[in-house]
Amino acid sequence: MLKRNKPKYKQIIEAAVIVIAENGYHQAQVSKIAKQAGVADGTIYLYFKNKEDILISLFQEKMGSFIEKIQKEIGGISSPTEKLYVLIEKHFQLLAADRHLAIVTQLELRQSNKELRLRINEVLKRYLKVVDDILIEGIEKGEFRKDLDVRLARQMIFGTIDETVTTWVMNEQKYDLVALAKPVHQLLTKGCAA
Amino acid sequence: MLKRNKPKYKQIIEAAVIVIAENGYHQAQVSKIAKQAGVADGTIYLYFKNKEDILISLFQEKMGSFIEKIQKEIGGISSPTEKLYVLIEKHFQLLAADRHLAIVTQLELRQSNKELRLRINEVLKRYLKVVDDILIEGIEKGEFRKDLDVRLARQMIFGTIDETVTTWVMNEQKYDLVALAKPVHQLLTKGCAA
Amino acid sequence: MLKRNKPKYKQIIEAAVIVIAENGYHQAQVSKIAKQAGVADGTIYLYFKNKEDILISLFQEKMGSFIEKIQKEIGGISSPTEKLYVLIEKHFQLLAADRHLAIVTQLELRQSNKELRLRINEVLKRYLKVVDDILIEGIEKGEFRKDLDVRLARQMIFGTIDETVTTWVMNEQKYDLVALAKPVHQLLTKGCAA
Amino acid sequence: MLKRNKPKYKQIIEAAVIVIAENGYHQAQVSKIAKQAGVADGTIYLYFKNKEDILISLFQEKMGSFIEKIQKEIGGISSPTEKLYVLIEKHFQLLAADRHLAIVTQLELRQSNKELRLRINEVLKRYLKVVDDILIEGIEKGEFRKDLDVRLARQMIFGTIDETVTTWVMNEQKYDLVALAKPVHQLLTKGCAA
DNA sequence: CATGAATGAGGATTCATTCAT
DNA sequence: GATGAATGAATCCTCATTCAT
């Protein structure tokens, strides 16, 4: 059986999300995660190479299912503009539904060292690929302009979504994030121009 | 004479930028900064309360002059759309001109703890205020649409600029960042729509 | 099992006594104590909250057994005057038998900060209570004079014993401390006698 | 002119007493003493070899005038028993009159290192000599018993006086110390009396 | 004489990781 | 597989002292 399918593997990752969200990245000691997961400190190392591996795995697992869910949702949609809307809405929905995960991805995991963030970026690329594909399809289908710089447009889309979620988390998730999907989508597709 | 006008104050901040950029946030020991600045370890503490104070001061000094320069540039411009362009271009120019500072602001300083990031955010607000003012003026002058959500638009603008710079830094500053000012400005003002 | 009954707990305390006696309070680094105890530096912190906690525990353990031994000795004696003699003799015997402990209690521990000394005083109070009890019993039994000020008499007894031991330690324990029990007792009881 | 007769010499010593009494031995930095004395840090070193020298000088100056005053008082008295009374009363009076000095000599200076305390003891010996002389005279004049062990009696006298003052200081000088001179004298002379 | 900016040595503590049981 | 006691490397800051002015 694959390591990542064993119950304790998932148990430890869920514990890590909770511990990091509640204590902050720098106060999330391995012993705290072990305690939260209900296992001994040493047991962690039967499932993860080291502490960094927990965090990378956490991001891979969570981001993986994140991307899968979004791909499934936009799979049946033909309009790229519409696909972009669903991507934004789903992105907001998934993070709004998991307060802990939102804190971890938007605030805490960014405190990790450069090394870890490079690994995280590799995972992110799969997400950015989804955005790229929508953009390319949109250009081909004539919904987006021909001379659109896909890389820049993707940076705008991701940058805007990310900044919107981060601001929401830093405001202690006080307002309805999902409700912003529509105006954000409008901004991104139509722009500020009069 | 104010502490922050003394030569060693600036000397230490410049040293901190270099050391953090070259060694990373977590490998930027006080002794390394002192050595780079050409002063004794203890001298650091004649000018800064503690290590965190160096980082906060660094950000305040750099971001402060950053904002001042941008404000000066857009001061003489009447069109908000044009102002936004100059803001983007200047933002890119200033960071492209200081490789070390770009690494520090886009990557290293984000690893700081929540406390420090809150302090950094206070400084950032002044920048976001500049963006907001441009947007409000744009709406009033009829260059931007009446129903524009200023907060969301600001999050798009800052998120896009930030993501663009970060991607550039993570790609080792291999391409011309300033050249992106025009298409980014176009994207932000006109959007992706055909 | 209680932390204080584990072998390493006692091992570390014994090491602390030796290191402090041989190097002095301010030269008794945690790493030195760990080395003397044959454990890693970090192990100290599995048994003690911090360095101060080692010193407080040391005093509590040693003074605790000190008081117990004295109480056991005087338990079977009926005459308060005789009790006082045994207390003095036992006090001298116990410190004369442990050169290191004598140095630590008479010289080194007094260099501790006010906070620590307040904690030490709490332990000392138990000792002073034993003296008080002897004095009160002596007054009741008519061996000591009715108008004896118990507090002052206790200060005389403790002050004299303490000064005698300190002088002996400062003279490098060159003469026989225990032999002084009899003349000291004589001096002290004349002051108290009815 | 002798260094110790210059105004700044005395100024610094008075400052040291105040700073140590108010901040504690370990919080009495040279810079604090300099500030309190109204001189620059460096000036301290024109009058004292090092920090330890300040403390030794402080004790020498204060203890010196302490002993002189006591010697002057007992000079005109013929009875050794009476002399002892005046010594105790004067000892209590002088410390009761200078709260700061009492704190410094009874609590703070004892936190100094072994080296410093050895130096302090040399000064103390002059005081103990005064006691010894009274005792010897008392034996010769038949007021104290012939077989009195002078060294032990001196340790009792000094130990008792010292313990009494220390207890009074630790009780925040709440009660009348001088009033204790009489009962303390009574306790001590009974032990010595012929 | 006086200044005060600059110096730099020194140590308690944390926590990821190991390994004997 | 699971445990958790033990390890030990690594760093910020203080403050007595100096010396150029």
TrEMBL record, chains A, B, C, D:
Protein name: TetR family transcriptional regulator
Domain of life: Bacteria
Presence of keyword DNA-binding: yes
Transmembrane segments: none
InterPro entries recorded: Homeodomain-like_sf (IPR009057), HTH-type_Tx_Regulator (IPR050624), HTH_TetR (IPR001647), Tet_transcr_reg_TetR-rel_C_sf (IPR036271), Tscrpt_reg_YsiA_C (IPR013570)
Domain HTH tetR-type intervals: 6-66
Protein source organism: Paranoxybacillus vitaminiphilus
GO function term, MF aspect, one: DNA binding
Regions recorded as binding DNA: 29-48
